[in-house]
Structures are given as C-alpha cells and as structure tokens.
Amino acid sequence: MRTEEEATEAEIVLRAAAPEDAPAVAALVESAYRGESSRAGWTTEADLLDGRRTDAAAVLKIIEDPGSRVLLVERDGAPVACCQLERRDDAAYFGMFAVRPTLQGGGVGRAVLAAAEHEARTRWGSREMHMHVISVRAELIAWYERRGYRPTGERVAFPYDNERFGVPRRSDLEFVVLSKPLLHSPEARPPAQAQAQPAT
C-alpha cells in the first residue's frame, strides 16, 4: 500500500474549487506556510513571517472571481494541494500554491504545476505563466527554475504595511517575478490524470 509520502503524479486529479471549499482551502494554505505544522514540509515561511497567509473570505473572493480559478486536489475528501490561476491579458498568474506538508517532495506539487500550466493554456490561451516568490526563498526559486521558470529581473516590494500578507520577521523581504512561456505543443500536456476537472 502506498504511503502519503509516495504519492506520484499519476495519482493526481484536480477539480475547480467551489465556494463551499473556501474554508478547507484556507486551512490547507495555512498549514503549508505558517506555524509549526508547516515545518513538516520544505515550503514553510514560519521563519520569515508570522500571522496568517490567507483566510476563508479571501479564498472565497478568488473562487468567485470570473477571472480566476482555484484548482484543488483532494484525497479521502480532504484537500491535499491547491493553487490559484488568474487571467492577466495574454498571461496567467500562478499563486496560492500549497501542498500538505507531509506530501511535499513526492511529486504532487510538480503535477499540480503542470496541470495549472495546461489549464491556463487551454482555458484562456495564456502565452506565459507569471508568479511572485519571496527573494530569500532560494530553494523554492531553484525548484521553479528546474521546471522552466526564469527570473524576469523585475522585483516587487513586500507589503510591509499590510498584515493581510503576514507579519514580517525580517526587513529585507521582497518578491522576485518568475516567468515561463506556455508552449502549445503535445509535449507540454500533463498526464490526463493531472488535468483539471470542472467543479461538481
């Protein structure tokens, strides 16, 4: 029998999150980035930021925005991974990416990212995917670079005056902008199991 840590891309099935999923999605994001539970994975920001990463109201607003999508992976009825896509002209923005800490490093995140790229290409015709990553997260930036993302040279100031994004524990935080072309080719398609399914 497979353990959670042995999850592979072939097991991943995504669907679009519905409004009633907002509290569970917010809890998943919190568990991956904030507090002691996040230290079970490698995406934790617990040493960089205190406070909340998001809440149910903010997630619901994204879900209900016609220009955005929240993609969700469930196992046994509980969310184990999610991400946000936002349409921005001929590009898409990728954010709110979270994988349950005990599943990180097992291929789930890679499959979710591939499915999100496919969704942006096929649903909106997006030519590029953009994202913001905290500049001191060198390991995370390297993970994205191995998947074809490159720094654009653009940097975005961290919103120190807005606790909605967390309470910084250091004074040198900023975002780097990463970008990847989304190629319209058969080779760019993820496995069928990783393609997003509509909300039911």
UniProtKB/TrEMBL annotation:
Keywords for the protein's UniProt record, in alphabetical order: Acyltransferase, Transferase
Signal peptide: none
Classification via InterPro entries: Acyl_CoA_acyltransferase, Bact_Acetyltransf, GNAT_dom
SUPFAM superfamilies: Acyl-CoA N-acyltransferases (Nat)
Domain N-acetyltransferase: 12-174
Protein name stated in the entry: GNAT family N-acetyltransferase
